[in-house]
Known about the structure:
The chain is of the alpha+beta class. It folds into 2 domains: 4-109, Immunoglobulin-like (Sandwich), CATH 2.60.40.10; 157-187. Helix content is 34%, strand content 32%. It contains 2 helices and 11 strands, in the order βββββββββββαα. Strands 4, 6, 7, 9, 10 and 11 form a 6-stranded mixed beta sheet that branches. Strand 1 and strand 2 (12-13) form a beta hairpin. It starts with a strand and ends with a helix.
Amino acid sequence: MTTRATPRSGTLAAPAAPPRPVSPLGGAIEDAQATTLSWLSVDGATGYVAEVARDRLFQRIVVTVPTGAANQVTLNDMLSAGTTLYWRVRAQTRNGETRWSPYGRFVAGSDSQYAAYRRQEEGRKQAKKRDQESAREKRTGEDSILPFYQRPDRVPSDSDVKLAIALFVIPIVFIVIAYVIGRIAIA
């Protein structure tokens, strides 16, 4: 990608960074009948072009789709089930086209593969949520054995503050009295 002179200023404009793929990534199984590719928008983009290929070098292109200004496209009935595919996107700006984005990888699955994958992903999300709730409960349990003034979730009341002061001051008073009595006894 070369930089181009803008007609108004005569200065060279730096090419925009390419869009960043959002979904699907990492070998996710997608419905071959309706796969949606999405990416982060590029400022000043007037349109995008998405490509899907059978290889990550994009030498065996399956489909090239201009998407207009939208930052996602749904490929309806364009992909063969059971195939690992790679996709990328680039933006069109008033200064020209960006580089191609890094590629995303996914599997165009059959309806049953897609449904099984979604159930598995939902199970993972629920397990993660349970783990987070368990950790939160554990922290809450640990906090409950802490004195109120050390708990991050509790604002002490006036009576709590008075009690804390009393619990802190009374032992000090006894220590001072014992010291004074000890000094008097020595003298």
